[in-house]
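One chain given next:
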Amino acid sequence: MTTYEQKAQIISEALPYIQKFSGKTVVIKYGGNAMVNEQMKHAVVEDCLLLSLVGVNCVLVHGGGPEINDMLGKIGKESKFINGLRYTDAETMNIVQMSLAGKVNKDLVALLTLSGGKAVGLCGLDAGLLKAVKLEDGENDYGFVGEVTEVNKQVIEDVINSGYIPVISTVALGDDGHSYNVNADTAAGKIASSLNAEKLILLTDTRGVLADRNDESSIIPQIHVDEIDGFIEKGFVVGGMIPKIKCCEDALRDGVHSAHILDGRVPHSILIEMFTDGGIGTMLKKD
């Protein structure tokens, strides 16, 4: 088969998926190494632009751990994590808000705009987009780390209906007037649920859920929502993957049609998952 025929076959394969997802909403959580690798960053932006051009409502939710670590290092403050969550005292919260809602968010909006797209940067403080309460687990003090209690989806829908891609940083507003640092995976799940999204996509630094975490070829392609607890009990899901898969479970039970854990190190992994027969990563489903 010639290169031209291969290209034509790829486009032909994508057509039914484009028709299926046109007009639907996809929430993408962007973080990890894909945020610091320039090639990956441009690939994610291009994927979002293509989705938008074929009629998919793309919502980009981002973290910014490397940027926050860099800023904390500049003021001589060590990063501290508890159960995978960044301990956030008042000083760290100021850095988180400055980094996420400021530099990281606006850099992404600028890159989307320079690439020919239309994007609007938002954070959870804007119009009460994300409301949160202080995270309490009865054992640890996480500081100003919050869990989302409410999503003002009208703000996001207004941006989408105006023809823009919402780019959302996960700083949330508490009823006590404090800003809270919210885990981006969890926030993306809550946002997807509020929008009744077709898909929730989490970009990670692994190929997906692995049967053997030391063997990347042992990827589990599909997991039913009712199997999740069993996979955790068997040790297939450990460490930082547990909150990711649990937020996918919550999103599925709250109306999201499917959730995907994809390798953000693979260029255009979003398009491969959405527009090819084979897909990529691990898909979590409820049907």
About this structure: The chain has a mean pLDDT of 90. The first strand starts at residue 25 and ends at 30. DSSP finds nine helices and 14 strands in the chain.
